[in-house]
């Protein structure tokens, strides 16, 4: 096929519409290129429930095997289950998923042995160059390679057992938990991970269906939480949990259906991880998590480290600092005990353990970690990202008691509030996040900055 790899290969992964932008013939080339760039003798591959995933995954396996690589297919899995296999087997891995994107999309998340991410600066650019050079003629035969084998292995039970070994839920009080899998991979993993725990599970949309017949598997959009919120209230449940399509992110709502901020979850899990490590350790957070996160980390004996938004930055900082945990506003949670990879399921188990380990309801538990008023992320379509950023900077530069930094976009901080404005890498958008010590001040700052951004 004629493929535009500049549209297909993103900063951290491969992602596009099937078959318009890519197909199995291209997946086979990616498999061969992945084998060559990693130099691996063996790899592990998994895929989600999208209709195109099994075929793309098998084509990738063929491409790698043709280069002499032994392939272990773990079949249907969540992205963090693939990371588990990469870490446990110490093998490079490839996960076929488009996460929360609509049904017509698919993609590949790739990692080196031990779940170390492959991004533009760590191999993805080389993979793209190889695939581009092979588009017309196909991948050349590996002259010195005997074709590798392709075998299957089920890792679900081992993955579940490993997660349960990291969080003890055996002695918690019984909890009623509604889980919305969004017809994604949470429907595959949750029943096995939760098996035998003192939890009454109320499943929603557990049927694996990559056409997403009920709602998009993107809980970051409030519209996709409505069904879960209603069901939690109907059931009189203690908590609701939603997973995205590949189940590597989790979102939490309380017994009233009110969403719990991912920053509050980050702070809660950070406190628990620090306690496990004797009150010592580094915790990574991106620059748009709440003030609560570094505060809680310090209060519990840890060292907070602020970084840019994006999993490659988080994982790189975790490796550099030896951090025990990392969290993002987008509900990605990273654990040293999980090869520095992100796993929404492990974060969910921590929240359940914390809730079930005391008698109070979730809002009472979360109040300690949710201290400020936040706007959430507000997107504005703009014609000139850099021009609007510059106008925002000019409006606040030089003001008394105001500090500016440009680690990632523009962050402006004062004693009672802060905001960050970041350009999207893929769309003509500016993303605004505001936080303040009270709702009134937050709304005032939010409206001031939006007026500048939107001209």
Automatic annotation (TrEMBL):
The biological processes this protein is annotated with in GO are: carbohydrate metabolic process
Offer one Pfam family short name for this entry: PGM_PMM_IV
Q: Name one GO molecular function term.
A: intramolecular phosphotransferase activity
Keyword terms: Isomerase, Magnesium, Metal-binding, Phosphoprotein
Give all residue intervals belonging to the Alpha-D-phosphohexomutase alpha/beta/alpha domain.
7-133, 158-257, 267-372
Q: Which cofactor does it need?
A: Mg(2+)
Domain of life assignment: Bacteria
Q: Which residues form the Alpha-D-phosphohexomutase C-terminal domain?
A: 377-450
**Of which family is this protein a member?**
Belongs to the phosphohexose mutase family.
Q: What PANTHER family does the entry give?
A: PHOSPHOMANNOMUTASE (PTHR43771)
What is the name of this protein?
Phosphomannomutase/phosphoglucomutase
Q: Which organism is it from?
A: Streptomyces avermitilis
